[in-house]
Amino acid sequence: MFDFREKPGQLIDAHGQDTERKGFFTDTSICIGCKACEVACKEWNQVPMEGNLELLESSYDNTGGLGANTWRHVAFIEQDEEQIEKARDSGQKLISLGMPSIGAPETREKDTAKHIGMPEFGSPGTRIKEEVDNPPNPDTPEFRWLMSSDVCKHCTFAGCLDVCPTGALYRTEYGTVVVQDDICNGCGTCVAGCPFGVIERRDTGTIHTKPDRVDSRYAMDVKHEGTANKCTLCYDRLVDDQVPACAQTCPTTSIKFGNQSEMVESAVERVTTMHAQGSTEARLYGANTNDGVGGIGSVFLLLDEPEVYGLPPDPQVPTKDLPQMYKKVGIAAAGMLAAAATAFVGARKK
Questions:
Q1: What is the secondary structure of 192-203 as a DSSP string?
Q2: Quick count: other Cβ atoms within 10 Å of Cβ 68?
Q3: Helix (H, G, I), strand (E, B) or coil at 22
Q4: Kind of pairing, strands 228-229 and 200-201?
Q5: Is 289 strand, coil or helix?
Q6: Which of 7, 83, 211, 342 is least surrounded by CB atoms within 10 angstroms?
Q7: More confident residue, 349 or 286
Q8: Is residue 79 within a helix (H) or strand (E), and if so which, with residue range?
Q9: In the beta sheet, which residues pair with residue 257?
Q10: What is the largest CA-CA distance in the chain?
Q11: Is 253 exposed, middle or buried (0-12, 13-18, 19+ CB in 10 A)?
Q12: What is the pLDDT of residues 166-196, one digit of tens each?
């Protein structure tokens, strides 16, 4: 039986001979929540506005999550002393288990942050004095904000791509997953196929949230209405050797862009540095190639459990179990046919 799921060899071939897989490294520890990435994404890709521009009651946010009209979303998560300690305890357990593998403290390279262009941070409430008197870390032992710019993960094994019945989604030469709007029929199968809840259909229910929106000063033309939409990693910019709009505009370099393998290496170095400085809550997300999606193209450094950021702790591509399911269905069908044949032969003998 044909297995239409992506395989590692197919993914490598999709990159082409002269290109490497591209991706993001989002370091949430230096995100300031300015939302410049959201604005840049909307302006460059002409993504329509969503919502009524009013802040949600749960956060300094007006969108709430990724969707057809929000390809970059910055989360604001408020934590008190108890939640901070819980995050550090869970992070310490991961370090004790050897995840990620960063070596013994005495063998770690010092000042690793300088080699990847990232600022050093001390533990909360302290300051690092070098030639430049850096300001103290704004976090305190009693309170902190977790800010994270979320985006499509461009999975190694993409569930949305696997289940698309029209071939509207395809793997580019950069290893990213893109929707072809002129081929998408708006069936929504990919929406259910994404384990991260990223992709969504663009319809009037999500765009025109108020009856007077069309007549307001915020009115705009809505392109590709009814089709599935998500981040393309600015494919039109990649083909011109440009950096994606969100990464280029990020003022703190929280969003870094480059070859996916290099982004993973930078993420490991960064989390190593933070552990050496006492920030045991730092951990990586999406860098494990043995997870349910084969690793992702958008690697994250988190300061708490993935669930706190609205990310699944163990994402699984929905087509993972299809061969076993088909096998069981085939066995069941064969058993039913055998039972029917036995009953038919027995009836004729009588």
A1: HH-TT---EE--
A2: 26
A3: strand
A4: antiparallel
A5: coil
A6: 211
A7: 286
A8: strand 73-80
A9: 24
A10: 100
A11: middle
A12: 999 999 999 999 999 889 998 889 998 999 9
Q: How distant, in Å, are the alpha carbons of 93, 141, 155, 267, 348 from that of 300?
A: 19, 23, 13, 8, 67
Rg (CA), the chain: 24
> How far are the Cα atoms of 139, 262, 309 from residue 172, in angstroms, in the given order?
41, 19, 28
Contact 155, 177 (CB under 8 A): yes
Residue with tokens 């600015």: 234
Contacts 24+ apart (CB under 8 A), 118-127: 118/27, 118/30, 118/253, 118/270, 118/273, 119/30, 120/273, 120/277, 121/29, 121/30, 121/274, 121/277, 121/279, 122/277, 122/278, 123/277, 123/278, 123/279, 124/84
Distance (Å, whole) CA 26 – CA 255: 5
For the segment 67-79, what is each residue's pLDDT rounded down to a tens digit? 888 999 998 888 8
What's the distance, CA 130 to chain centroid?
A: 35
- The pLDDT of residue 207 is 46
Structure token digits, residue 67:
């969707």
Read out DSSP for 294-317?
S--SEEEEESS-GGGGT--SS-B-
Q: Please give the Cα distance from 69 to 75 (Å, whole number).
A: 16
Q: Which two tokens stand for residue 220?
A: 């705009």
pLDDT: is 36 or 57 the higher one? 36
Q: CA angle at residue 297 from 294 to 299, to 5 degrees?
A: 95
